[in-house]
Design goal:
683 residues; mainly alpha; 3-stranded antiparallel sheet; 33 helices; 3 strands
Length: 683
């Protein structure tokens, strides 16, 4: 009868109540009302940051109503039609009250509830009066309950009509303090820590993790508001987020809750090691499922794929061939969570089903003058801590920068301008593994900003990052260093400078040989980016990259790693010395095998590109092997249907080379099949 809608699936202070159906049984309606009223009374023990007295009064009145409802249930009274109509309206109102109390007690929304205390008090007043209105038409005189209960209900109705529910004086003072601090941020003023603490104590925010919850909630609200055409709430929410971000940086020296999160990640990793990742792929597309659903046969597919299959008139299960009568699908929430955890542990990007991707371009601006001032103040505070703080304070400052720079362009700009980067580079040499980790993670996030790249290079950052890549105290540090090089390699000058560091490519290749998939992934994409500078081609080959990459093709079960390895090999094969190195490993038949079996479209494209380069640079010995492969032409012709895609163009060129070779062989000509042909031994 009741349907729980969690805060994460609706906007704050939105009440999507559902009207009971006309045919609802009176007993079921009454039982649901008792359930709702009991839930409301259960909020009595919750903490409310604002409207405390107003909410207590509402809960008290609903408690009286609960006594009335329970007596009707206990006496098993028959309800007249007018009573059912009254209770239906009451049911909608109680649903809305539950939503409102859920919002008011939500641990991450305390600051917002304080600043919207007037709106909340209005909601409370409207809803309590709606309960009186719903009971107005209730035939109390026809119901056989005690006179005492009837009198209580009538008293409650009168009180509900008279109740004012105005903004409480303490809430007004606390919200005024917040507004004064925000006005100070607009003027470039740094707030007094005592003023900040007074507000947070009033809100019941007593730890770093509680403050961080507020920031995450506000960020999600800004993202939702950004999707609205008018975006009227963005400035307000951005100011509140700036306020809380500064508090998180300035008021706490200890980051609590971090160890528990790391422990949870280790436990999740152990569980995932017992599962087969192939079960996370849709049987139709062979891609990782982001929105898995189960059909009536019990098998699970990606929602869009199975619905497309069924709507095309296919009435059988793709996996078993069983008849499918219904097109109804059931979300497989447990599997979706496992896929998300698998992607998180292995560093695979995956979008949330049903949600638009986080648009980082909205963070180019701060969102409001108050948010801009707060971020600049926070950046200057953190730069000061990095410059003159204790080792613990420097570590915590690096961690804050790591968080602030992760998904916010304006934050990166402020942190770079405040002079944090040289201090973070210095922190890379720390013998404390946590400080080194937070420093390289912060630099990685900052390296996505163009000016930050320049500052890093000008302060000797390229050599320092390569050094951490080689000798980082933790594997995660080395992984992040490789990712940082990838972003720095987006600048041509830095691709050249990184390539000239003798240890750079050997260190990246050592990372590929480690056991962790994230290390392999980051190293591969970094090498791929660095190869766009021509001189790095010979350096990669001289470092012994080809045997390591070919080995990865056979040893890795990760489709994305195989694809990335093929991408690097295809780039190397574009030059004759790269072709010689690849053919020297005997990889030709392996590449053909991958082409015929790979479910990855990018993987297939890189295979075709690689084979084409091997033909051009390897000559007739390579081509003669390809023309004898029975499955190659079928795979190539299937790509031609993709019109003007890169894969189609490459396939067309390779088919032309193979046809020309066959025509020359048939006519007895011995002219070279391809330009630039040289003698190469093909295994």
């Amino acid at each position: 009868m009741t349907r729980k809608v969690h805060t994460s699936s609706r906007r704050i202070l939105a009440f999507p109540a559902v009207q009971p159906c006309d045919a609802v049984a009176p007993a079921a309606l009454l039982a649901s009302l008792v359930h709702l009223a009991t839930a409301i009374c259960g909020y009595k023990s919750r903490f409310f940051a604002a409207n405390k007295r107003n909410i207590r009064e509402l809960i008290r009145q609903i408690g009286i109503l609960l006594v009335f409802l329970e007596e009707i249930v206990d006496r098993r009274l028959d309800l007249p039609v007018s009573a059912v109509l009254s209770f239906s309206e009451l049911h909608v109102t109680l649903q809305k009250i539950v939503f409102l109390l859920e919002d008011c007690s939500f641990a991450g929304a305390r600051l917002m509830m304080l600043m919207k205390s007037e709106s909340v008090s209005n909601h409370l007043r409207v809803l309590i009066r709606a309960t009186a209105t719903a009971l107005d038409v209730f035939p109390l005189e026809l119901i056989d309950v005690s006179d005492e209960v009837k009198e209580l209900v009538q008293l409650t109705m009168r009180q509900a009509r008279r109740v004012r529910f105005e903004v409480e004086a303490d809430d007004w003072r606390a919200s005024k303090d917040v507004l004064l601090i925000l006005d100070g941020f607009k003027e470039g003023a740094v707030p007094d820590k005592g003023d900040l603490r007074r507000v947070l104590v009033y809100l019941g925010i007593r730890s770093w993790s509680e403050c961080n919850k507020e920031i995450k909630f506000l960020d999600a609200e800004i993202g939702s508001e950004w999707l609205n055409t008018e975006r009227r709430g963005v400035a307000f929410l951005s100011g509140l987020m700036g306020f809380m971000s500064y508090c998180r940086c300035a008021l706490w020296d200890v980051v609590d809750g971090e160890f528990g999160e790391q422990l949870d990640k280790r436990c999740i990793s152990e569980v995932l090691n017992c599962l087969n990742p192939d079960d996370f792929r849709c049987p139709i597309t062979l891609e990782l499922m982001t929105d898995p659903v189960t059909i009536e046969t019990g098998h699970t597919y990606e929602r869009s794929s199975i619905l497309k299959w069924l709507r095309a008139g296919n009435s059988i299960c793709p996996k078993t061939g069983e008849q499918v009568v219904s097109m109804d699908v059931v979300p497989n929430i447990a599997l979706r969570r496992l896929v998300q955890q698998y992607c998180s542990v292995n560093g695979i990007p995956i979008s949330e089903p049903g949600h638009k991707n986080h648009d980082i371009t909205r963070t180019v601006d701060a969102g409001s003058l108050a948010a801009e001032g707060a971020m600049k103040a926070a950046a200057n505070f953190l730069a000061g801590r990095l410059a003159a703080g204790t080792s613990g304070e420097r570590n915590k400052a690096a961690y804050e920068i790591r968080l602030l720079a992760k998904t916010n362009i304006f934050n990166r700009h402020c942190l770079a301008e405040a002079g944090t980067i040289p201090h973070l580079l210095h922190l890379l040499s720390s013998r404390d593994s946590s400080s080194q980790l937070n420093a390289i993670a912060a630099l990685l996030n900052l390296s996505k900003h163009s000016k930050s790249k320049t500052i890093m290079a000008e302060n000797g950052g390229l050599e320092l990052i390569v050094d951490v890549l080689r000798k980082g105290l933790k594997m995660e540090v080395r992984e992040l260093a490789a990712a940082t090089l990838y972003y720095l390699a987006s600048v041509e000058e830095y691709r050249k400078l990184i390539g000239e560091i003798p240890e750079a490519f050997p260190a990246l290749l050592e990372l590929i040989k480690t056991r962790t998939n994230r290390a392999k992934k980051n190293a591969l994409v970094s090498i791929f980016g660095l190869l766009t500078f021509p001189d790095n081609h010979r350096r990669v080959l001289a470092s012994g990259a080809v045997p390591i990459l070919v080995n990865l093709l056979t040893s890795s079960e990760r489709e994305d790693l195989v694809t990335d390895s093929l991408a690097v090999l295809a780039t190397l094969a574009e030059k004759p010395d790269g072709t010689i190195a690849i053919l020297g490993t005997g990889a030709l038949h392996l590449i053909l095998q991958i082409l015929s079996s790979s479910p990855s479209r990018p993987g297939i494209e890189y295979c075709v590109s690689l084979l084409l380069s091997l033909c051009i640079n390897g000559g007739k010995e390579v081509v003669s092997v390809l023309v004898r492969n029975p499955s190659l032409m079928g795979a190539l012709y299937s790509l031609l249907a993709e019109d003007n895609s890169r894969a189609s163009k490459k396939a067309r060129s390779l088919i032309r080379v193979l046809h020309e070779f066959c025509e020359r062989s048939t006519s007895g000509l011995v002219t070279p099949a391809c330009p630039q042909e040289r003698s190469v031994h093909v295994w």
